[in-house]
Amino acid sequence: MKQAKFLAIVAASLFYASFPLAGQDAPQGTAAPAGEQQHHMPLPKPTNLKVLPKDISPDDLIKTMRGYSQALGVHCNFCHEVDEKTHKANFAADTKEDKKFARTMIAMTREINTKFMTQINDPDAKPADKTVTCGTCHRGSQMPAQFVPKPEEHGPAPGAMPMQKPQ
Ligand code: HEC
Ligand code: HEC
Known about the structure:
Elements: H1 2-15, H2 58-72, E1 81-82, E2 89-90, H3 97-116, H4 134-138
Antiparallel strand pairs: 1-2
Helix pairs in contact: 1-2
Bound molecules: heme C (2 copies).
One heme C is lined by residues 43, 46-52, 61-62, 65-66, 68-69, 72, 74, 76, 78-80, 91-92, 98-99, 102-103.
């Protein structure tokens, strides 16, 4: 439970990843020099975004992608084509079925949040509580686990059909 909640928060926080940690008490000496916050291998400008904002920053794009990977418990190659010999990924290619599924899931998740979650006015819920993320359903698995209710702990409910006697 705790871990699932943590995952959901991690995933949710990715949506707010562009917010700087300003105002928080960062331990002394942890502020990275400007250059170090850049990725070692800068990603080329995305060319094939259909659901994510086309002007998303490379930093936010990669954080979002890491979030998907964590939420589903997979690596980038689950959705992206990677050349077996060169190990080079072609992120723009739409060859993998799961990338297409993911697009639908991204659109669905957005719709749940903008269209439906906004109608729930629960004063106790913090923003992360009322944000559905990939992790809300997937919880670290590529296929969300089916919910199986616990077997009833007490005897049959009053009025339940009596068990059939063996012949
Ligand atoms: C669950 C599926 C999934 C996983 C896992 C995933 N991605 Fe993606 N990625 C997508 C989808 C879907 C798009 C296209 C989004 C769109 O159409 O707006 C995309 C787009 C991209 C793009 C932009 C490509 C372009 O030129 O348009 C890059 C770069 C990228 N992903 C990198 C990564 C990296 C790096 C990882 C691993 C850390 C990763 N992705 C993991 C689904 C995934
Ligand atoms: C409301 C619950 C829910 C949310 C939120 C959700 N998913 Fe899913 N996802 C599902 C279910 C249920 C399936 C199984 C559908 C099927 O197999 O027909 C699934 C299947 C998938 C698959 C195919 C998995 C496979 O093994 O082939 C991918 C990829 C995926 N989701 C990505 C995502 C991503 C990325 C996000 C966040 C942007 C996301 N999902 C958010 C419920 C959800």
